[in-house]
Structures
1.
Amino acid sequence: MELTLWTYEGPPHVGAIRIAASMRDVHLVLHAPQGDTYADLLFTMIEREGRRPPVTWTTFQARDLGSSTAEMVIETLKGACDRYQPQVLLVAESCTGELIQDQPGALAKGAGLSAPIIPIEMAAYTRKENWGASETFYQLVRGLLAAKAPKPGEEQPLRPADQPPSVNLIGPTKLGFRCRDDVIEIRRLLESMGVRVNVVAPLDATPHDLLRIPEADANVNLAPEVGELTCDWLKRQFKQPTISSVPLGWGATRDFIAEVIDTLGLDIDPDAVGESRLPWYSRSVDSTYLTGKRVFIFADGTHALAAARMARDEMGFEVVGLGTYSRERARDVRALATEYGLEALITDDYLAVERAVTELQPELVLGTQMERHIAKRLGIPCAVISTPAHVQDYPARYSPQMGFEGTNVIFDTWVHPLIMGLEEHLLTMFRDDFEFNDGAVPSHLGGEGGGGAQQPDNVTPMISPEPGAVAWAVSAEKELRKIPFFVRGKARRNTEHFAQEQGLSVIDVETLYEAKAHFSR
Amino acid sequence: MSQVIARADADTLPEVTTERGERAVFCGLTSIIWLHRRIQDAFFLVVGSRTCAHLLQSAAGVMIFAEPRFATAILGERDLAGMADCHEELDRVVSELLARRPDIRRLFLVGSCPSEVIKLDLANAAARLQGVHENRLRISAFSGSGIETTFTQGEDQCLASMVPDLPAAPEGAQRLMVVGTLADIIEEQFRRHFAQLGIVDVDFFPAARADDLPPVGPGTRVLLAQPYLSDTVTALCKRGAKLVSAPYPLGIEGTLAWFQAAAAEWGHSAETVHEALAIPMARAQKSLAKVRESLQGRTIHFLPDSQLELPLARFLRDECGMSLTEVATPFLDQTLMSEELRRLGRDVSLVEGSDLDSALARVRNHRPDLTVCGMGIANPLEAEGLRTKWSIELVFTPIQGFDQVADLAGLFARPLARERQLEVGSWS
Ligand code: SF4
């Protein structure tokens, strides 16, 4: 039994719904009670989908238990088949369905339905959403393609010489982070290299499209949380190599280009493929103030790994915390953290993440919507880089994360919540000026990112000393107020730490400056 | 699948059609979101699955509160394997929780589908834990499971679970108990109105503090502020209370009749009440008149969701001039709804239960100006060019009483005003 306030991932059947909702001509029947239908709103509200996810729920009630739930499954399956005429019908159960053991997959097979059936086992009590998505997609691809795999000794037919090389983009889904735009961006990138995109799946694919997957030369593992299992299987069965560099960030996009060239044996100059503005923006003098900004990163595995590399190597930040809720990716994240001299935070306990952020007092948090709320409470600037995300992270504008345009978008997104270099400088110089009082918010910060700066008072209770700890002399308190508000929380905290370490009971002006000297880097 | 089951009073009451089939309503756990805001020192611990936790955060709009006063104890494989372990684990989780939250005065263990299917006895667990944490707080249990309850029925189960804890009222004294969660601001307004009527012995249940338990006994007159409280009413009546039959305090007429029904128990005539409340009523009429224009003559359709459908339909038809294409509700308690049914009359197409696809087919057929529905369905209907109003907003917004009448009408007027204003095409 695990005490949970907020969860990073939903249950595995939500992952199954993500696959069905991403595709066309697939329908999912879920054996589940009525309350589970809340999952519809994830798609229709958060991602503003204009259609209900293609899911029919049995919505059994207590009075059906022990007598008619199995019949409900069959009736629901038949109804869904008749009404939606899917190319493939997926069958799964939610946590409660699993407990009543009707085995809807077996029932479906025996029901004489017109559509091909693919049952999915969900393991609701051990697994989570991304696993559910990965497993559903894998079962679907395997179910459709297993019979087409070349027999041992047989060769996969070669691509005709007059056809351009092609790849599949595997893994993007609905409710993924910016998948819609990443697919567009990566397709453009590949096409500029003379590479055709054969199938994108699951996003917008039909089961018929999946049947064409083996025709490509390679698979791009674009969203490993969802696609890796399938890419591995395709590699084994169809000898299709996997391109596994995820083009998130400038260096990673270059790695991706190199890997595509290498895998497909292309004869092109990797440096001529495209360019991003990030390198110059990062080198331009205004960005000097970004140097050594202390960032905390927590996301799904893929985005956490990519963000860490970008933060250190491409933005010049200092990564002070790195973690993920994706246990499947724990090994990679741990390895990278070690390389950065950190201990990775692998958890899905939001309170543990909050503790870490409170402890580290970073200057920027890169995370999910959970971290956005944590950061907001602590008055720390934040940018969202990964699911789970909220409605504002599914923007109307074109806003990819991947490829060169993605690095441009990310540069802007991360810099925006920080105080602009010049402005920070001015704030320090003119801190006693009436216009630079606590209420004055940097001119470019109207929204979310400025939340912390706008509400310094909310921060105070979080960082005020424990009862019985050190007190502030009036003079020191006054001096503290002269410190710009955006670093005041940290200064207060550091000074209190320092005073406690020194065994002082009252902080005066001297203590404040002693502490400043002590902590200055 | 539908059939006509009830025609209680052939001449005046609506026919009720029941439907069985796919439902698209949240489960009772959803009630926790407004209950925990109302009872400010209570904590709701759901014993369930990751799905239950995910439902709560999705329905709550995700993370609107820093550290909420609700949480889920997620059952794992080990808990399913052995009941003994499961109880031990629950004890551990509760101790952990109480150590973190010393401010909590009442803990509700909330049952879910998984806990019910494995027959985890939470009432028993609550009694055991009460023994351990005696004098510190009260612990009780109720079910919010989707196999037993829909959406607002979670509140019914919660309140019913508290009824045994209510102190016995002294013999003879007559007191009014207003039952059902209301916003603080509405409670204050209502107290003022009752005072104007000379009724001062008024309790609100649930109260803002968990320890403020109203007394109950034969002198108690129960006046429902919310229509979905069947089990709570039954439990209160078992303790001697008497239910005051009234419509619900939505709209001017509903609110007036609600006060009149209560005041009648104190021997006040309907006219006296009318006079005493003339000022807020006039104010309400004035502010409603402005909003009414945009609703007048428009059609509205209710998909089954919050159980507020009947009183809302009555208000929108009688006071705002809308016409009703269909009023569906997940569950219809004929007793608690008797005054609403009487007012709705015969010409209403009333549906109890749900069969989602045929219900949606009827919406498409009628193409009403406005459809009141759950959040999962709203955007898909909008994409078909239909205007919608999410019913969940109706349980989070203060809508009862005279001074909220225009706000209530405004909730329905806004999507229509938006349609008139926008010059961009609908998405589909
Ligand atoms: S319907 Fe049941 S399993 Fe689903 S969220 Fe509600 S209580 Fe939990």
Note: The two ends of chain B are 30 Å apart (CA to CA).
2.
Amino acid sequence: MSSLQSLDIKRRSATTLPSPQARETLEVAKLIDVSKCIGCKACQVACSEWNDIREEVGHNVGVYDNPADLTPKAWTVMRYSEVEEKKGEEMNFEWLIRKDGCMHCAEPGCLKACPSPGAIVQYSNGIVDFIEENCIGCGYCVAGCPFNVPRISKQDSKAYKCTLCSDRVSVGLEPACVKTCPTGAITFGSKEDMIDHAAERVVDLKERGYANAGLYNPEGVGGTHVMYVLKHADKPEIYHGLPKDPKISATVGLWKGVLKPLVMLGMGLTALTGFFHYVKVGPNDAEAHPDEPGDGNEPKVIRSSGPAQMEGTASTKQEGQA
Amino acid sequence: MKPANLIQRYSDSDRINHWIVAIAFVLAGLSGLAMFHPGFFALTGLFGGGPWTRTLHPYIGLVMFTAFVSMAKRFWTHNVMEPVDYQWLRLIRDVLVNREDRLPKIGKYNAGQKLLFWMLVAALPTLFVTGLIFWRAWFAQYFPIPVIRVAALLHALAASALIIGIMVHIYAAIWVKYTVGAMIRGTVTHKWARLHHPLWYQQVTGQSVTGQTPPPGQE
Ligand code: HEM
Ligand code: SF4
Ligand code: SF4
């Protein structure tokens, strides 16, 4: 993908000054209502169709997940979790299905970690996009992402993930998965509208006995532009390890937020200190050193402040002046 | 200058080994810095662009690490810290103003050189191990993401210590004249050796050095 002109850029990886952002686009979001999802994978197929990427047909690994993981050619994957829980006296079985993929974080860890200018951009509408032509293939985004989303292709060493169909959204269409979902489990619109819509769904689910139903829009990453309505919002982990309180890892914060500026300062100061030390003290020149007095090696320096003196080394006493 | 006036400090293979490490350091450092801070990203131009920089860097690092192992074996015993080295460190202010006449007599290396050596001994294996862990092309897929994060942080930390340490090393070599020559041609003059490394001078020439250390308490 190349970055889209009609979606102005809020943030750009490895870039310290602002990007063009005179235009503001409406903040968008995709809402995935897990309670309405039947796990048909139409969205997976639509993604593959629209983006024209085909993951190899894999093997059945004992669950319905296929492919078994996100890949450079499978940007969304349905995750099926079989969860058994005690409900009163009886065991209650639930088959929880979650559409996995990039969450389009407001504070994207991938973008924070990426060392290549413009390989990751965040548009003003909230979509986080990988611009593969600028990607150097280092995989730092993998370390930066709290949701384990980016995948580096073995074929071309570029990073890939869901684009939230930025190409469609920029011309006023909804993402392909939204368009295709037969049950209306995926909706798309302004982030505000999606939050309102989720609130209605949560009320409905609570009425049906899901007391812990709620919206997944985690604050730790500033909120996301892909949100879930969960029947068990108190335990997102049961949905195939959806993190309860995702945030950019403290290690990544130290690496990118603390070490990076400190080292720049340290290197600059070291270089300057060396230079000014030389300017002040000058070389330590053994050959010009009068360790055999009278060998004629002592340089004579005429100082503006006084008569000629020998340059400060062993035989001259210039305490506190050298 | 007559050959007899010079003292051999480094053998041919010592020097070749040192400069392989040095060249690999410069290349690994420049390619690493290019990925460390956007202010240095332009350095990727030296290596044929971003993807090439990312591809080449770990191999250059491996060259540096391998050559360093060989160099460390050569210089190890000369770099063991001794009591006199701590005395030297306490007088660092005199070192910095070229007042070597006030310093204790030291051997082949001074405490600054020794500390740099041990810093390298700590930094290079760290860079090697962490570098392998977050090397996306080969090994990163075998490690969990939290381990990769720590590896990246430690790699950047060790590289920073190494780069700043080597900046000091390079400056010291320029500041103390004829030191670069010692590593290029392998030889130093008697005067150089007497002044900077008197005990080593005694060892290799059998001549004692007088008038270097002032009596204690008197400066
Ligand atoms: C010992 C072998 C080494 C290996 C295997 C290694 C490997 C790596 C890898 C895999 C990366 C990530 C980018 C990429 O994939 O190219 C990297 C980054 C880096 N390396 Fe190395 N490296 C080694 C030695 C060194 C040395 C000797 C230095 C310093 C002179 C160095 C400095 C850096 C720096 C500054 C970065 C960027 C770190 C950041 O972005 O925060 N590396 N290295
Ligand atoms: S691999 Fe990820 S972090 Fe590295 S340049 Fe590409 S997008 Fe950026
Ligand atoms: S989920 Fe991961 S890849 Fe997607 S925007 Fe957030 S940090 Fe980036």
Note: Residues 212-219 of chain B have pLDDT under 50 and may be disordered.
